[in-house]
Amino acid sequence: MSALFTCERCGSLFTPNKRRFARFCSAACRREWWAETVQARAATTALAKLAELRAAGVEPTARGWTPERRVKMAASDRERPRRAQKEPV
């Protein structure tokens, strides 16, 4: 006789199919649990770190470049002549 387990997400009793120790009754319960706990915690941590970096004057989406510096670099890029592209053979 197989042991019954309680799903960590919905609380229903189930018999695991393949695993000796299972935590969830279905893939849907596992995905919902992941979204509610792990993913939500990671998003909260990431948003806190983003706010901390922006308060320190670092723009992480620009890989450390502030918006003013990016504008200056874009202007200097326009002044540089472009290399000629090779003709297709």
Explain this structure.
By secondary structure, the chain is mainly α. It has one domain (5-78). Helices cover 47% and strands 4% of the residues. It has two helices and two strands; from the N terminus they run ββαα. The chain has helices at 27-55, 67-79, and strands at residues 5-6, 13-14. Strands 1-2 form a two-stranded antiparallel ribbon. β1 and β2 (13-14) form a beta hairpin. The chain is elongated and about 75 Å long. The model has no long low-confidence stretch (mean pLDDT 78).
Quick tags:
89 residues; elongated; two-stranded antiparallel sheet; 47% helix; 4% strand; mainly alpha; 2 strands; single chain
Q: What does this entry show, briefly?
A:
The protein is mostly helical.
Share of residues in strands: under 5%
Give the SSE order as H and E letters: EEHH
- Sheet with the most strands? 2 strands, antiparallel
Name the overall outline. Answer: elongated
The whole-angstrom Rg is: 26 Å
Structural class: mainly alpha
Low-confidence stretches: none
Roughly how many Å apart are the termini? 72 Å
What percentage of residues falls in helices of 4 or more residues? 40-55%
The overall strand count is 2
Number of helices: 2
Strand order in the sheet with the most strands = 1-2
Number of domains: 1
Mean pLDDT: 78
